[in-house]
Request: fold
Amino acid sequence: MYQLIFIVQIISIIALFAEGWIVFIKWKGRLHSYLLMSIFSILINNLGYLLEMNTQTEEACYSALMFSYLGRVWTGFFLLVFIAELCRVRIPPLLKTLLALFHTATYAAIVTNPLHGMYYKEIHFERVGGFSYLAHENGFWHSLHMASVVGYVVCGLTILCLTYRREHSKTVRTRLLMIMLTIAAESFFFLIQILSHSRLTEVYDVTMLGSAIGTIFMLAAIFRYDLLGTEELAKEYILDRMSDGIVAVDAQRELAYCNKPAAALFPELEEDPSAILLLLENYADKEEPLSVGERIFTPRKDQLRRGEDVSGSIYVLQDNTDLYQKQSGLQQEVGRQTARADRLSLEMMIALSKTVDAKDHYTNGHSGRVADYAAEIARRMGKSESEQEKIYEMGLMHDIGKIGVSEEIINKNSRLTDEEFAQIKKHTVIGYGILSSITEMPDLSIGARYHHEKWDGSGYPDGLAGEAIPEEARIICVADCYDAMTSTRTYSTPRPQAAVRAEIERCSGTQFDPRVAEVMIGMIDDDKDYQMKENNGAGVWKNKELFGSIR
Reply:
């Protein structure tokens, strides 16, 4: 019997060395680390026990026992954390620390046992049939240690069974089955050792046979069923070295995996991942960039599928900081260039309006005042700031067509002939032709063409009536007539405010859109000091300070 067990022990140690070497040369991450520590703890246990079997004195036997326990006290712990890592089950770091402290204290109790007898009591050395061993009674700490081993076995098998049930891959299920057989074999012989009172269990620790059989199952899992998952581990190795953060959740919306960049971005994933998972889901659903520190990420969410079944979701955090910085710089430059172009456009329109006004020595500033009045009417009518700006620009350009009319006709002091008035009327069509060529501002020509159309259809050049006249032109029409009545002309002087108000009211519904006329009358009533005339008219528009920032 002794020779057979001795040979089994030697073979088991050789197999454990081989298993440890294989894991070591393939070592990539925590999964390998935990498996390697588990193998080393079993190997040290077996080596120590082999020495114990062959000792000749009690002192040598006790020393061999101390060496054996250097591995034995850690076997269950490292096997559990390996199983948890394999099955993606999170063990809280605090619990790991407490368990590690317990096993350290257990080994300390074993080493100092002669002083207190907490682990073994009434120890004496014996040799039976070639076996050397220490006969003893168990102390209370020994019971604690055995209870912890039983707890590890139960937890490990539970985790493996639950993972096995959820897993769909045949290869992965077979790997898990091999691990379960390993645990079952070791557990079976462990139970025999602690429950049996036979002569064999007294002189020999049969858990050594369990570890030998377990090693066979583990080697089968490694070689036959790719326990170390070379392909999967290679993928994980690559994922951990990507700059993108990757977070995976299972079908129950629990954290299943995160690579190193994601863990570095969100340390909370280790302790309380729920808040981070909700954050990622919200930003991915809204397709908004997520700022973390000084970096900017674009979260993307995809479903994880096995065939037709959805098994979870994956969030990819793409680092687009450089792209956003370039876009921001580009947007700023575009903003600067746009503002510059807008400023040049406005300055050009003002210059052109002044050129037109300069043809009539009595209407200097007319276009600017009309633009102000029209924009303020639009504001009071509830138009947006951009609409007010557009009407302001139309007002500046409404008389641009007078460039094509003779100065003699424009500045004539006496009554115009029918032919001369026909020339004056052409300025609407001429202006429309000039402004229509500005393709970037297609609506600019509307005010120029239609500002002399009348609500009752008696205006020119097209004789439009009512709402067929563009609203902007109806607004400019009232503003233009108001400025004509409140400014010095070749044929008239500024009228009294009351007379102007009465004229606007009289022409409401015939020459003017009633709604626009009503707003103009309200502006007149608000102008208690009659400032809206001649040189004081510009600046009436309340939102003029926003002009330029609106764009």
About this structure: The two ends are 97 Å apart (CA to CA). The chain is about 65% helix and 10% strand. The first strand starts at residue 120 and ends at 128. The mean pLDDT is 81.
